[in-house]
Amino acid sequence: MYEHDDIIAAVSGRDTRWQPDRLTRVRSRIAEIEDGLGDPWAPGNPMGFDAVLDADRKEEISPVGLRRFQSLGMPAELVPERLGGRMAGTDLLGLVMRPFFRRDPALAFSHGFTPFLGAQMVWLNGDARQSGRMAGVVLRGGTVGVACQRFEHESEFHAQEYTAAWSDDGMLRLNGRKNAINNAHTAELIIGFVKTGDGETDYSILMFDPATVPPAGVRALGRHRTTGVRGLQAAGLEFVDCPLPGESLVGTWGDGVALSLRAYPAVHAVFPSMAIGLADTALRSAVRAAQEREFGGPAGDATARSAIAGTFADLLIADCLSLTAGRSVHLLPDQCDVLTAVTKYISPKIVGEALYDLSAVMGDAFHAERGHHAVFRKHLRDLSTITFGHVSSAICQSVIAPYLPALADGAPEPEPTPADLFRLEVPLPAMDGARLARFGGGDGLLGYLDRAALRLPDALTLHDGGDLLRELVAGLCAEAAEIRREAGRLTGSDNGFLLDTHSFPLSERYALLLAASACVGVWLNAGTGPDAFLTDPAWLVLALHRLLRRVGRPVPPLPRAIEGRLCDEVLERVRVPRGLDLLGTEYAG
Amino acid sequence: MSRHGGPRPPLPTPSRVAGPAGPWARLLHDLDTAGVGLVYASLADWRSLLPPEEERRPLLGRDWTRYSRLKGDQLRDRFLTTRLLIRHTAAVALGTEPTSLELSYGLNGRVRLRGYDQIDVSLSHTGDLLLCGITSLGVIGVDTEPLTRRLSGRDVETLMCTAPERLRLAAVPAEELNGALLTLWTLKEAYSKALGQGLRFPFTEFGFRTPTGPNPGAGTAEEAAETVLLERSNGTPVADDTWRFATFTLPTGHLAAIALQDTRRSDQPDTRAGTALNRQILAAIGSWGR
């Protein structure tokens, strides 16, 4: 038996006899970060919403925020343990970044997400020297910029692209201009996707320090201002016959598209997880606005209570999906590409819709530009910018659509989904770049629903509302069967699905079904440990009810008590306060 | 076309489509040049062109269940017509077949094209008139009411207007009051629909400041677009230049309002379904012989 102090010593790593489990470690790390940032609603807190709104108005990243990001050791969270950091899994990274994302999305996006995106390309594809160089820059809090390739369905960050070619002197020559690269003028390292030939897939990945190129070869272009996350320091860079050393090449020449696809799973899983922090603040601020207005009771009338409960259910859906996706990167590396793309595709849509539903709860405060209510509108604006909107959807759909024919009836069934996919406490193996390049897509989650339906009667013996849950899962299984039938009718193969536009709606319904599977899996396996609220199936009932409605199927009537249970939980977690996610860690405000 | 920094193209006026066959050229042009288009149609005109009952199921897709529960030809025809108008309008933007599309509904009933988030649509109908708006810029909401609809009355003002709006309405001549209220009503409907809220967002919680005059707020797009301002319930202007609002008077004797949010910020948004999947990614995945 250990005394309290022993546990603290163990958590802080001073005790070698006792190692806390993964859940305890991540909870204590989140608490540590929260303590270091303080109550975001407190006036005068330099990491509070007043300061963040002020920096947003000035179109700056708060220097105090950046120092705190570094002093709390956040850069090390981005770096795998083998490279000297403390990242022990893709599933944990989003969780520890939430305290920053819920306060200051511009800072968290620029110094948390962007370096992670760029570094993944190097850590999964580069050589030891390149990986070490990138890890060194990230670990000491250096800035990383990412110059994305152009897509037909472009966004501001995906318009224009660079070209590169080898020259006789053994150097590379970089040409072209891009108007929007995050951190362009401060980056110590830039990761660039550059076109390196006339073929469809002739791209390469380069890594270079823009300060070391000859001044004549590069021209800094003006600041690029975004609609949301106004503090983002995005800007343009133009290169004219700019020489770069050959060692700037990351991975194989001309193989850039396939190499970047290896990095997508982790990136696709981590982003929606981080963004739950942003949504947490929006929901919390809507509850506060409703309570201040006192319309119809502590959290408003029936419509407001319903919107609050529904939004919370949607946050839990996104959390179940990102937890499952994050773990799949390590546990099913050769099959995780589709699940992670599904997560990036559907989570922002689910969360975005829920947050807009809170506008009716906010009422007049929805339009506040000053004062503490203004954070709601700012965060909504930020979410819209940092999800990259349609271009990101198109990338995800490009990963999902080719897999759909494999869902058809009669196609070989993938291996059953392992239970560890849903259980945060189980440690994960390191990422494996070679296996991430297999693009298998067979996570088995669609079939998981049928198997889960068989387990439900036993799992529900101690709970009320079991019939309703079984009916919802039966509806989802019927939809899964319909998806398989429609997948079998998709015309063409290989490039054929470029022409069969039925794959677009089918991708979305498939995504909603995988979200449902992730929720059922997390519930059946107590994915984030024992917890009275999560053990009660009320949240799962509401989550599945909303997913089944979204998929366009008839739903059984929802007892009012279900939404009541979730709304009460939200009010309690706003009061205490605790995180509005699966972990429900105590927050500083 | 450059929308960054330079003046935005004016909101195009609504164009009439006589039936599923069009004409759609104006809509395509408006989408290409302004990223937004509005079409209106006569229910009676479209109804006369509807296919017989036995051919309708494939046209409706997942909407068939809802359709088959409707009682009577009139309700069914109206439902089918509105779905066809949305499908045909979206098919123009996506460069695809109307029957390959699937309509989905948000939890508050907002209609979307499932799997196509490069466009947003909004539909309004009243009597014989159908109005459909579509954009590739962000979100859109539209609403239309007959100019003859009577809204005047103190209760109406209390239910749908903010205090500053009521104060301004008090100065409007009696014969213009109904028009002013209709303008506010359609704008509020359009904005609330653009947010996906329908009537859930209480209309007394936000307001619009419209130009005064004989036909407040209605006019050519250039006149109207930048002169309708969103404000908070106490009259404070909402400083958000991503939103644009306008009203139009249609030749059919209806008032139409549009609320549009432009967050896309890309110079030439390509909305076609045929180019949405990235060929490089498909080729890279395909090379592994899936």
TrEMBL record, chain B:
- Gene Ontology molecular function, alphabetical: holo-[acyl-carrier-protein] synthase activity; magnesium ion binding
| Membrane spanning residue stretches | none
Domain 4'-phosphopantetheinyl transferase stretches? 140-224
Please indicate which superkingdom the organism of origin belongs to: Bacteria
What keywords tag this UniProt record? Transferase
Is Transferase among this UniProt entry's keywords? Answer: yes
- Which GO cellular component terms, listed alphabetically, does the Swiss-Prot or TrEMBL entry include? cytosol
An example of a Pfam family matching this protein is ACPS
Protein's UniProt keywords contain Transferase: yes
Gene Ontology BP terms: lysine biosynthetic process via aminoadipic acid
Task: Identify the PANTHER family for this entry.
Answer: L-AMINOADIPATE-SEMIALDEHYDE DEHYDROGENASE-PHOSPHOPANTETHEINYL TRANSFERASE, PHOSPHOPANTETHEINE TRANSFERASE
Instruction: Name the family the entry cites.
Output: Belongs to the P-Pant transferase superfamily. Gsp/Sfp/HetI/AcpT family.
Full protein name = 4'-phosphopantetheinyl transferase domain-containing protein
